[in-house]
Amino acid sequence: MLTPECIVSTVCPFCGVGCNLELHVRDGFIYKVTSPFDAVVNHGNLCVKGRFGYDFIYNPQRITVPLIRKTPQRPGERTQAFDLSEWREASWDEALDYVADRLVEIYRKDGSHAMAVYCCAKATNEDNYLLQKMYRALFRTNNVDHCTRLCHAASVVALQMAIGSAAMSNTAAEVIENDVFILTGSNPTENHPIIALQMKAAVRKYGAKLIVVDPRRIEMVDYATLYLPIKPGTDVPVFSAMAHVILKEGLYNRQFIAERTENFEAFAASMEKFTPEYAENISGVDRDLIIEAARLYATAKNAAIYWALGIPESSHGVANALSLINLALLTGHIGRRGTGLNPLRGQNNVQGASDSGAMPWHYPGYQRVDVEDNARRWEQAWNIEPGGLSRELGLTTTEILSSVGPGGVRALYIMGENPMMSEPNLNHTRKKMQELEFLVAQDLFINESGAFADVFLPAASWAEKEGTFTNTDRRVQRVRQVIPPRGQSRPDWEIICDLAKRIEKRLGRPQTAYWDYRHPSEVLEEMGRYVPEYAGVTYERLEREGGLQTPVWDRQHPGTPFLFADTFPRGRGKFYPLDYTPNAEMPDEDYPFVLSTGRVLEHWHGGTLTRHSWLDDLFPEPLVDIHPGDAAHLGIQDGDAVRVTSRRGSIVLRAHVTPKTNPGVVFIPFHFREAAANLLTHDILDPQAKIPEYKAAVVRVTKA
Ligand code: SF4
C-alpha cells in the first residue's frame, strides 16, 4: 500500500454540497481522494465525482502555457480553434500585455458599454471578487455576471422581493429535522448526491414524510409519501392550489401572518381561482393529491421546501419561486430549525461568486449598483474618484451575448465558463461569439467557447491554489493548494491582479484600486471590510473552526445555521398575488414533446472538466430519456439512434427508454458537444430574472 507523503484537506470542486475532501499526495502527485468520517458536510461520504473526478488535473489536453491565435480574428469571421496548430505559445508578459492593449484600445474606442466579463462559479470567492473589481474599477462597467443567471436567477429575484435574502434559509443537514419536506424541480440523487443521502435518511430513519413534485419520476419518488407528476411549467397552479386548500381549510398560521408578513389579503384573493380542479386541468396532477399534499405540509410541525432548477429555469421562473415562498409564509414554516425555503445551488461556488459581486445589478454583498450610497462606499473602497463607478445596471450573461455587435459589447473576458454549451439557442450564441471583436478565455482546457478566443490564459486548478468556496448552505470553506500549478498555469487571482496593473498603467490611472495582494486571505479581508455578512470570516478562523456559515457579523460571531429567526432582511415577508402563465412554447402537432435539460451524476455542465476525466468512460455518450409508452408509439427501441428537433436545431443521439421520464416529456443532459442539448432550447427569458426556459422547449422525436 502506498504511504502518503501528505494529506491535504480541501473542498470538492464540483457541486454546491461542498463536501470535505482529503487529497493524498505522493511525489507531488495526487493519487487518491478520501473524506474523513467527521467531515461536517458529508460525514465521509462522497459521490463518484468527488471521489474519482479529480484526474482532469493531469489530462494531457490541459493547456499549461499562454496561447495566442496565429491568425487575427475579425468580427463576423471568428472561428473555433481546437487544434493547437492554430495557436502559438507566448510568455505571460506577452500574453497579458496583448490582452491589456486590446481591452484598453476597445474601451477607449467604444466605451464601457463595449466591455463585459463572465465570472465563474467554479472559481474561488477571491478570484470572483477581483475580476468584478477589475471590470468595475477600471472599465467602469457593471456588465459582470456568471452562470447563476442560467440556474437560480429567478429564485434569487423572487426571494429578494419577498423576504430580502436569496440564500438557502437553513442548513442542508437539517433535513433530518423535517417532519415533512417538499422536493420540487430537483433531482438530488444525480445533482446533489450527498444531500440525497441525507434526504433518504430523513425518510427511512427519522420518519419524515416526503412530497415530490416533478415532471420526471426521479429516484426520490421511491422514498415519497406523495408523488405529484406535474406537467412542465405548471408549478404556479399546483402550489397555488395547495395555498387555496390551506386557506379554505383554515390551516394557515394566523399569528405568523399577522406578526411577520404583509399583503396577505391581496394574495389570498388571488388564490380564489386556484381550485384543485383548476390546477388538475392544467397540471395533470390529481386534485386529491394536491389536497393531501396541502394538508400534509400545512399541518406538519416542521416543514421545508427544497428546490433546484426545475423551478427557476422558466419564462415565468420568478412566479414559480414566489408560489413556493407564499406557501412558507402562509404556514410559518420558516425562521426555525428544520423548516425553510431552500434553493439548492448547483455549482461548488455559485453562492460565493454571487456573494462576491459577480452580478450585474449588485456589488459584493448584494448591494445594488444603482443606489448612490453603495456606489460611494465602493468608490472609497477602491480609491476611485466620486461618481467614477457606473450607476447603471449591467447586462446579464444572456443579454451580454445578445448585445454583441456595433453599439453593444465588443470585448468579452470569460473566466472558467462555457457559454457555447450552456447558453440557450446555441446557433444564435455561435453567431454572437463570431461577432466579437476580442475574446479572452481563462481556463484549464480549450473548450467550445475558448476555441473562439484570441488569447488563452492557462489557469491553475482548484488543487493548485488557495482560496475559499461558499457552498449551498452558505458555508465558507478553505480551498487549499495541494500541488504546484501544472506547467506555467497560474491561480486566477494572480492572473487578474497582474493584468489589472497593466490595464491601469495603460489607462493612465495611477494606483486606482489595490492589486498588490500577497495572498488570497488579503482579498477576503478586503471584501469583509465592505460586506457585513463576511465581516467575521478570516482565513485564521477558517483554519481554526472549519467552515463558517454566513452571515458572520464580526470576528466573534459564530455564523448562522438558519436565517430569519426574528425578522426578514426586508422587514415583513411579502405575499405576492399570482396568475398562471403558460410556458413560452407549448406542444403541438409538429413538436409534441416537452424537452427538459439537466445533468447526470457523472458529468458537470458543459463538460470542460468531467469530459477530460475518466468519469467520461462511465457515461460516454449523450442519451435522450423517453417514456416506454412514447417510444412504443414511435417504434423506438432502447439504444436506437433518434433525431430530436426543435424550431431552432436538431441533434442525433441514442434513446434511453425509461419510465423515469413521464409521458410527453423527454430529457437530455447538456454535457455533450456531439449532441448539444442547447441547440434545441429557446432563449425566451423570464422578464424579471432574465433566465432562460431550459426546462420547456418543445421538440419532435423521430428515428434517425
Ligand atoms: Fe462533490 Fe457534490 Fe459529490 Fe459532494 S456531492 S462529492 S460536493 S460532487
UniProtKB/TrEMBL annotation:
GO terms for molecular function: formate dehydrogenase (NAD+) activity. This is Formate dehydrogenase subunit alpha. SMART domains: Molybdop_Fe4S4. The keyword Metal-binding applies. Gene3D superfamilies: 2.40.40.20, 3.40.50.740, ADC-like domains, Dimethylsulfoxide Reductase, domain 2. Pfam families: Molybdop_Fe4S4, Molybdopterin, Molydop_binding. PANTHER family: FORMATE DEHYDROGENASE H, RESPIRATORY NITRATE REDUCTASE. Its EC number is 1.17.1.9. SUPFAM superfamilies: ADC-like, Formate dehydrogenase/DMSO reductase, domains 1-3. Keywords: 4Fe-4S, Iron, Iron-sulfur, Metal-binding, Oxidoreductase. Residues 5-61 form the 4Fe-4S Mo/W bis-MGD-type domain. The keyword Ubl conjugation does not apply. It comes from the Bacteria. It comes from Thermanaerothrix solaris.
